[in-house]
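Lecture notes, part 5. Sequence design as translation. It can be helpful to think of inverse folding as translation between two languages: the language of shapes and the language of residues. The source text, in structure tokens, appears below.
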């Protein structure tokens, strides 16, 4: 993972992340599925939803802050700290589920994650997930890049948003057969009058790590104004999301 999280801010301002994840749950072929891992479980909302569907579920996340909130909210569920690119399980499971997590893993580490998932699954086990896909938030990132450069900084993209064919090939190279895959636009409403700025502050942290405070605010102001005509409609901000949704089976 290449991001640190504030669990309280994440839960209060960005609930759309797990709200949309409810649709991804429907991709799990529930027949003969009992044991499930929620990889990158965050605050445990979807871990709980999986449990409500009758699955024996374990949440795994790298963030202790997220896990503390998950354990407080759902004390009856099992949560473990672990890195998506380097985790093991005591016994193979029937399915690994993940929502809005995998695009935080650097491209070169994606095969490590896929091999960990493959090792965690029983033969025929399912890997069901949604992540950002090619073109996700492109208008936002392009505008940030322009404004970083205008103030003398380099904008380093910290997300991995793959094409459908590219990612399917990576999965197949790691021992999966892709049974379902879709890449689709999903404009996503951002909360509040400062929705775009808040989104950038929450999700685009690393590129700002070496930026002076005054320059940071100027970049945010310029980006906000540059995108107002395209991403602000009816009094609401929207992120130009593109999602990649997949169900793959261990060979």
């Amino acid at each position: 993972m290449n991001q640190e999280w504030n669990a309280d801010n994440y839960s209060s301002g960005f609930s759309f992340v797990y709200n949309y994840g409810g649709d991804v749950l429907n991709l799990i072929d529930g027949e003969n599925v009992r044991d499930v891992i929620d990889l990158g479980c965050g605050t445990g909302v979807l871990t709980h939803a999986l449990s409500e569907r009758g699955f024996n579920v374990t949440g795994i996340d790298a963030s202790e802050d997220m896990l503390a909130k998950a354990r407080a909210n759902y004390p009856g569920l099992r949560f473990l700290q672990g890195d998506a690119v380097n985790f093991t399980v005591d016994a193979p499971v029937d399915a690994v589920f993940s929502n809005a997590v995998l695009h935080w893993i650097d491209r070169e580490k994606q095969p490590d994650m896929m091999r960990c998932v493959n090792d965690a699954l029983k033969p025929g086990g399912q890997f069901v997930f949604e992540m950002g896909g090619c073109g996700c938030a492109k208008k936002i990132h392009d505008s940030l890049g322009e404004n970083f450069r205008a103030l003398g900084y380099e904008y380093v993209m910290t997300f991995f948003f793959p094409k459908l064919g590219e990612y399917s090939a990576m999965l197949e190279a790691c021992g999966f057969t892709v049974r379902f895959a879709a890449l689709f636009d999903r404009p996503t409403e951002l909360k509040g009058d400062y929705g775009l700025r808040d989104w950038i502050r929450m999700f685009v942290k690393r590129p700002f790590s070496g930026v002076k405070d005054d320059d940071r605010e100027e970049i945010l102001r310029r980006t906000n104004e540059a995108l107002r005509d395209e991403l602000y409609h009816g009094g609401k901000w929207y992120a130009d999301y593109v999602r990649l949704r997949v169900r793959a089976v261990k060979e």
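The translated text above is only one of many valid answers, since several sequences can fold into similar shapes. The chain has a mean pLDDT of 93.
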